[in-house]
Structure formats: C-alpha cells, structure tokens
Design brief:
Layout: E1 2-5, E2 9-16, H1 21-34, E3 39-49, H2 51-66, E4 71-74, H3 78-86, E5 94-95
Parallel strand pairs: 2-3, 3-4, 4-5
Antiparallel strand pairs: 1-2
Helix pairs in contact: 1-2
C-alpha cells in the first residue's frame, strides 16, 4: 500500500488491508489534522481493501467531520463501489460523481 499527496488530496494505491491499516491511519489522520476544507482520497490506484481498510476510511471520515472537514472519495473502483452499496456506506460517505447503483453488476 502507498499513499502520496498532501493535506488536500491523497492518492491511495495497492492493498488497504489489515497489514497496512496502521500506516494508512497515521497518514490519513495527519492529512485531516493539517488541512482545511475537503480532503480528497483518490482511490483509482487501489487494488483492494478489506473490512479493516474500510474501517480506516470510515475513521478518517469521522475525524474529518470532527475537524470541520469533509472526506471525499474519488475514483472508487467498481468492486469497491459494490461493497459501499452493500454496506450502505455510499449513503454516508461523500463520493465524487456519486455511485450509479443501477449500473453496478449484481453479485
């Protein structure tokens, strides 16, 4: 897993899972704490995430809200969009361009 960027926009790539969760959490929390306005997470280079990785995203979302910021997801891959819909988190998280639920293949 890698994260590059600053306190305004971060690109997350590789696997966001139990092995990378602690490092990702540290980077995301620092970015939230050090900036103002929206924090964009570009997930277009993310290969996969597990429940722990999704928990890191949700934790960053909550922290951003407490800091008066908004976490915005960009470039969410289709398989991860399906997971957000299945868990109904697409209703909570800000997703750039939204998710076309009707366009997602059924699982």
């Amino acid at each position: 897993m890698y994260i590059r960027g600053d306190h305004v926009e971060l690109v997350v790539g590789g696997r966001l899972d139990v092995r990378s969760a602690a490092d990702a959490r540290t980077v995301l929390h620092s970015a939230v704490d050090d900036g103002v306005g929206d924090l964009v997470l570009d997930l277009s280079e993310l290969d996969s995430w597990d429940a722990t990785g999704l928990g890191v995203i949700m934790g960053a979302h909550r922290r951003a809200g407490r800091c008066g910021r908004r976490l915005v997801l960009r470039g969410v891959p289709p398989q991860m969009q399906r997971l957000l819909v299945a868990t109904r988190l697409h209703r909570i998280l800000a997703i750039e361009g939204g998710i076309g639920v009707e366009c997602l293949p059924r699982v």
